[in-house]
Amino acid sequence: MDKKDWQRRGAGHRERLRERFLENGLGAFTDAEILEVLFGFGTPRQDCKDRARAALARFGSLPAVLEAAPEELRRVPGVGPKNVFALRFVHAVARKFLERRIEGKTYVHAAADVAAYLGHALADRKRERFLALFLDARHAILGVETLFEGTLTASAVYPREVVKAALARHAAALVFAHNHPSGNTDPSPEDIRLTRNLYLAARLLDIRVLDHLVVGEAGRFTSFAEAGLMADIRAACEEMLARAMPAG
């Protein structure tokens, strides 16, 4: 097949993909077809089927491909810098859209949107990432910020930096979230110690900590508040503060 013949057939194939998306949405696509279209944004005159399949074979899932580092993507046969740019750009736009969609909404009423954003921002990452959602006095979401990345421990996440970020946003309340690369969403003892330290630091400045979410694979998460852990932390911290600063 010569180049002109391939371009003619390739154009027809991509037109069929566009029509299928417009008629049936993304649910009508396999993960390989999604990647084929995304890679095609970078190299519209090349066949991207094989590189899409190779990327899935290398990384194991669509989310893993989307979160892969540029240098890792370049190791996939056929994937060049224009393909990497297209993939990373579209992924970043999706994340920005989800982030902007939750801003200004009340945290309780935006739970599904928050879960969607966190699932996109945190799920299937190879390194731990710690986010804070900043809320006003009515618990409307002021914004979201990634504060730390790496191995998260009570000594690695600095309460003063968290509080500093909250004050800069004029936040009255906070919700924390971080991922477990293992996929397990059970809070670890270190997670509980970290949340207790952050609660105490925020409490001294009259900033409330409402919840801490641990995100695992495919956007699954465990909520400290729903699991009763937040109430236990709150009670223990308030008792500690009462002993340290008795009334009168």
TrEMBL record:
Gene Ontology MF: a single term: metallopeptidase activity
Gene Ontology biological process terms in this record: proteolysis
Keyword field: Hydrolase, Metal-binding, Metalloprotease, Protease, Zinc
Gene3D superfamilies noted in UniProt: 5' to 3' exonuclease, C-terminal subdomain (1.10.150.20), Cytidine Deaminase, domain 2 (3.40.140.10)
Chain coiled-coil ranges: none
Domain MPN: 107-230
Statement: the UniProt record of this protein carries the keyword Flavoprotein: no
Pfam family, one: UPF0758_N
Stored InterPro entries: MPN, RadC_JAB, RuvA_2-like, UPF0758, UPF0758_CS, UPF0758_N
Cross-referenced PROSITE patterns: MPN, UPF0758
Family, as annotated: Belongs to the UPF0758 family.
Name by which UniProt lists this protein: DNA repair protein RadC
